[in-house]
Amino acid sequence: MALSACGTTNWGFPYRPDVQQGNWITSEQVAQLQQGMTREQVRFILGTPTLQDIFRSDRWDYPYFLKPGYGEQEERKFTVWFEGDGLVRWEGDEQPDRQPFQKADTGRDNIGAESEGDDNEAAANTEPEAEPAPIPGANSVEPLR
């Protein structure tokens, strides 16, 4: 009973924490990159790079490493190059299309889609709900209108 409060499905003894390091970059962020962007614009989109070499200031590296307590480790690399203050190219591994806190698969194909048939007609014919009646004595101050 006491262990049910932990709320995780990754049970393992001994406990091994997940180790996450680097920059999480999504495919949406990569799609926003354009040649000629300034360093500040790139930093706004991708975040501060994990690695900035003082000898090669025109290259920013965005590595990502995840070693889960139990399971396969994951490693991705992404690099951008500048000439002066303008972005000239970028390359790296394929990036995910989700954030790390989002599950990879929800198990539902059409999220938010309603079923066809009578349910749609019933939903179209419903009236908006009325405001709940005030509780006497619950609020002694009259609301502003």
TrEMBL record:
<keyword id="KW-0998">Cell outer membrane</keyword>
<dbReference type="GO" id="GO:1990063">
    <property type="term" value="C:Bam protein complex"/>
</dbReference>
<feature type="domain" description="Outer membrane protein assembly factor BamE">
    <location>
        <begin position="22"/>
        <end position="91"/>
    </location>
</feature>
<dbReference type="InterPro" id="IPR007450">
    <property type="entry name" value="BamE_dom"/>
</dbReference>
<dbReference type="Pfam" id="PF04355">
    <property type="entry name" value="BamE"/>
</dbReference>
<comment type="similarity">
    <text>Belongs to the BamE family.</text>
</comment>
<keyword id="KW-0732">Signal</keyword>
<dbReference type="GO" id="GO:0030674">
    <property type="term" value="F:protein-macromolecule adaptor activity"/>
</dbReference>
<comment type="subunit">
    <text>Part of the Bam complex.</text>
</comment>
<keyword id="KW-0472">Membrane</keyword>
<feature type="region of interest" description="Disordered">
    <location>
        <begin position="90"/>
        <end position="145"/>
    </location>
</feature>
<dbReference type="InterPro" id="IPR037873">
    <property type="entry name" value="BamE-like"/>
</dbReference>
<dbReference type="GO" id="GO:0043165">
    <property type="term" value="P:Gram-negative-bacterium-type cell outer membrane assembly"/>
</dbReference>
<protein>
    <recommendedName>
        <fullName>Outer membrane protein assembly factor BamE</fullName>
    </recommendedName>
</protein>
<dbReference type="InterPro" id="IPR026592">
    <property type="entry name" value="BamE"/>
</dbReference>
<comment type="function">
    <text>Part of the outer membrane protein assembly complex, which is involved in assembly and insertion of beta-barrel proteins into the outer membrane.</text>
</comment>
<dbReference type="GO" id="GO:0051205">
    <property type="term" value="P:protein insertion into membrane"/>
</dbReference>
